[in-house]
From TrEMBL:
GO terms for biological process: coenzyme A biosynthetic process; pantothenate catabolic process. Its EC number is 4.1.1.36, 6.3.2.5. Pathway: Cofactor biosynthesis; coenzyme A biosynthesis; CoA from (R)-pantothenate: step 2/5; Cofactor biosynthesis; coenzyme A biosynthesis; CoA from (R)-pantothenate: step 3/5. In the C-terminal section; belongs to the PPC synthetase family. In the N-terminal section; belongs to the HFCD (homo-oligomeric flavin containing Cys decarboxylase) superfamily. It catalyses: (R)-4'-phosphopantothenate + L-cysteine + CTP = N-[(R)-4-phosphopantothenoyl]-L-cysteine + CMP + diphosphate + H(+); N-[(R)-4-phosphopantothenoyl]-L-cysteine + H(+) = (R)-4'-phosphopantetheine + CO2. One of its GO terms (molecular function) is metal ion binding. CTP binds at D103, K113, P131, D132, V133, L134, F150, K168, K172. This is Coenzyme A biosynthesis bifunctional protein CoaBC.
Length: 231
């Protein structure tokens, strides 16, 4: 990745990336969360900066420090992520939604800590749907802006990974969808990753399995190819 990662082919491009996993509060000390480490989004930010881009990383509960030269906007919940992305997106040339955004949040957030033995001890959590940030960003995008989504998929009775991914790309209206086949098991927290990049024009580009920074370099190659219409 050395030489490729340092090619300044993203110079002058303004890139906005979300990474990590949102936490949806239940009370002042508890949340519903997910297992995203944020490392693939973090690697995308690091590699984009190394290739000359001006990078903003909206980081949902990412435990590691900012990559060199990247402006980080820390967020917690899906709502905070939505606010940050909506504020930053209008000035971006490329928006990448690598964050695992909670589909649902608790419908009510207790103002004080939920206690055992209290009157009204909770027995269930009511959930409401979060807004789809990616769909909103696509709807509001300025002309020429590229929007990239991520999806972790498994095959099921409805179809295989690729057919689910194609449907999701169309449903979201993105230019590119970076697809992780999670049928085989655990990807969360691992150093390696293996993805396939789907483009709106139908192009399917499997990237070789590798460290997340190598995968990030491949994703930026696909973004650059899609921008010039050569791939
Ligand atoms: N996404 C988003 N806002 C949400 C949910 C997802 O912006 N509320 C984004 C993710 O960041 C990702 C893409 O949408 O880039 C696909 O996420 P995914 O969870 O695969 O899609 P969903 O539409 O939530 O579909 P599913 O029911 O399969 O979870
Ligand atoms: Ca989802």
């Amino acid at each position: 990745a050395g030489a490729a990662a340092l090619r300044p082919d993203l110079a002058g491009r303004r890139v906005l990336i979300s990474a990590g996993g949102t936490r949806e509060p239940l009370d002042p000390v508890r949340f519903l969360g997910n297992r995203s480490s944020g490392m693939q989004g973090w690697a995308l930010a690091r590699v984009a900066a190394a290739r000359g881009a001006e990078v903003v990383l909206v980081a949902a509960n990412v435990e590691v420090p900012a990559p060199f030269g990247v402006r980080v906007v820390p967020v917690g919940s899906a709502e905070e992520l939505r606010t940050a992305m909506t504020a930053e997106a209008p000035s971006a040339d490329v928006v990448v939604m690598a964050a695992a955004v909670a589909d649902f949040r608790p419908g009510t957030v207790a103002a004080s800590k939920l206690k055992k033995g209290s009157t009204g001890e909770p027995t269930s959590v009511d959930l409401v749907r979060n807004p789809d940030v990616l769909v909103e960003l696509v709807a509001a995008r300025p002309p020429g802006q590229q929007v990239v989504g991520f999806a972790a998929e498994t095959g099921d009775a409805e179809g295989d990974v690729l057919s689910h991914a194609r449907a999701k790309l169309a449903r979201k209206g993105v230019d590119l969808l970076v697809v992780n086949d999670v049928s085989a098991g655990q990807v969360f927290g691992r150093a390696d990753n293996e993805v396939t990049v789907l483009a709106a024009d139908g192009t399917v580009t499997p990237l070789p399995a590798g460290r997340k920074d190598v995968v990030a370099a491949g994703v930026w190659d696909a973004v650059a190819a899609a921008a010039t219409g050569s791939g």
